Amino acid sequence: MRYLILILISIFFVQTTNAQIYEVGVFAGGSNFIGDVGATDYISPNQGAFGAIFKWNRSPRHSFRASVIFSDLEGIDGKSDDPRRRQRGYNFNTSILEISAGMEFTFWDFNLHEIGIQGTPYLYSGITLANHDNYYFTPAGEYTSENTSSWAYGIPMVLGYKTNISNHLILALEIGARYTFSDELDGSVPDNKDRQQLSFGNTNSNDWYVFSGITLTYTFGRRPCYCNF
Questions:
Q1: Residue 170 half-sphere exposure, CB side, CA atoms within 13 Å?
Q2: Boundaries of each DUF6089 domain copy (predicted)?
Q3: pLDDT band for position 229 (cuts 50, 70, 90)
């Protein structure tokens, strides 16, 4: 799956090298998890996160955006502020592959064909798909694999600031929370229906995770005309 996604991104990059309204680049940063295991700090990266990002700038104020990000999610009860979690002593670590697509809105016009350095805050939202392996905790507290995997749907809520550092390079700093429609990422709810009695925590509250980091994108090609957009 990883190699197929990277191949498709490479093909799309080659086919669009004549249009200035496209960007392609990388994301690098960290991740943290908010759920039923571990700390509940909103922004506290404890694992690395890396990926690729692509944008189609439909106007100086909005872009269609897609990304693929790889990361581990980790939760350690011993690092929680909740004394009940510290006493319980659970911990988990799982790898995720996130695919995201949606729209990015800038607070002000961001037209790279104007002379000089520009900068603007922006918002991004859309939909995410996070692939993860399934685990559960035994009555003895052992983190155990179910030997299956699932896709968790989610909604990204990203706030960032970007600026051009050259004629073709754009640097951005962003923090993005992902609300998922799943409560299985940390193993607090087993995927197998026969193990539902092993569920724990707030089963009415789904899992969150946060990516914090930077993006560096390259924009290329001829000057666009936004008049039809």
A1: 28
A2: 5-228
A3: very low
Q: Which of 27, 140, 33, 152 is nearest to 93 (CA)?
A: 33
The overall longest dimension of the chain from CA atoms, in Å, is 64
For residue 1, what pLDDT band results from cuts at 50, 70 and 90? low
Is residue 3 domain-resident?
Answer: no
DSSP code of 80?
-
Count structural domains, the chain. Answer: 1
Question: Taking the mean position of all CA atoms in its chain, how far away is CA 123?
Answer: 14
Residue 174 forms part of a structural domain: yes
Residue 88, phi then psi, degrees to nearest 5 = -65, -45
Would you mind telling me the total number of residues written for the chain in this entry? 229
Residue 3 — pLDDT band, cuts 50, 70, 90? very low
Q: What is the pLDDT of residue 74?
A: 97
- With residue 6 as reference, give the H or E element that holds it: helix 2-15
CA dihedral (40, 41, 42, 48) positive or negative: negative
| CATH number for the domain that contains residue 128 | 2.40.160.20
Structural domain contains residue 16: no
Please check whether residue 111 lies inside any domain of the structure: yes
Nearest in space to 175 (alpha carbons), one of 24, 27, 23, 73: 27
Domain encompassing residue 193: 26-220
Q: Please, where are the H alpha helices in 16-140?
A: 83-88
